[in-house]
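@channel anyone free to eyeball this complex?
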Amino acid sequence: MENGRRYFLKLAGISVLGLGTKPVLNAFASSEEGKVHEAEIQNNPEALDAKRWAMVIDTRKFESEEDLKPLIDACNKIHNIPKLTNKNHEIKWIWIDEFKHVFTNMDHEFVDDRVKNLPFLVLCNHCEKPACVRACPTKATFKRDDGIVLMDFHRCIGCRFCMAACPYGSRSFNFRDPRSFIEEINPDFPTRMRGVVEKCNFCAERLAVGKMPACVEASNGALAFGDLYDPDSEVRELLKNNYTIRRKSELGAGPSIYYIV
Amino acid sequence: MNDKNKIITGLVIFIVFITFPFWYNRGKAASIPEPKLTDKAKLEKVCVEPKDYMKVEHMQILDIWRDSVVRTGSRVFVSKSGKKFNVSLSTGEDSCMGCHSNKADFCDKCHDYASVRPYCWDCHIEPPKEKK
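replying in thread with the prediction:
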């Protein structure tokens, strides 16, 4: 084999030619990708907007679990929530619990009978400083500008850090494929798949089309929903005129669900 | 070179074996799929973007749409022709599947051919199958 200068120069020349084709190839490859989805995506003009959404639950208007059932059923039906009988696999967006479990820091031996036996409605608190958002490694859980703590189910990898972080137990994990446990599928809302976490979304999909959350709509006025930063809103009116409590507010998460007891 | 015959036979067998998939499947290539449009889609004539763009970039559009709905809550798409669409895969009449309600003949045909398996339908609910 010829190993001289001549051979080296030939090889170098061919290599340089080869390198020169790269920009040409790039130009061909990018001609298709260059086009972007130019047209715009707008907000629905009917969408409800707020600086920070909040809810006031008037527990004086509820007496038994029967009164709360329609609210829970409305949510379960709209959001395709599976009915799993195994306690460990349960999926909960909005549910009922006792005073001593809901307000752990306020419970004492001599709580009055009404409060002691009253069923409390609990759901995601859509905190001002949500621990779940900080814990999520993929940004699947995030806080929107209007205060709603939302989940992007597409991004959830099912690590369950958020469940460990949430002080309210508001999150559920799909240990099983939920599809077969849904009684009646609502085609307008997706189900979830096995291996993702889910929770209440403050009916973000309903607010986007100008509707109030399903539980509020079904509550006959016992639940109020509105903008916490709007001094004239219904929730502010209620907060001004009633003594309200929040769950575990000493943790500093800033829950947005207020209870009139 | 006493083993010449053995070596050649071995080579022939080897080559036949290696090329088996090629000549066995010769002429059996699946024809290029032609997605079918529903009557509703045919009447509409235009999609959110021109047909050629949709063919190549529909997955990008779905990605942009998903982020738009989930992250910013913007749900109304205005196409270049000024027509408004619901930014949604399967919710309502003016979503993707509202028009292309024939998933088997529209989506699956090409996806099967290209061996692409999008997991949209693990969560999103596919339109009810049309009875023929």
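from a first look: The first helix of chain A runs from residue 5 to 33.
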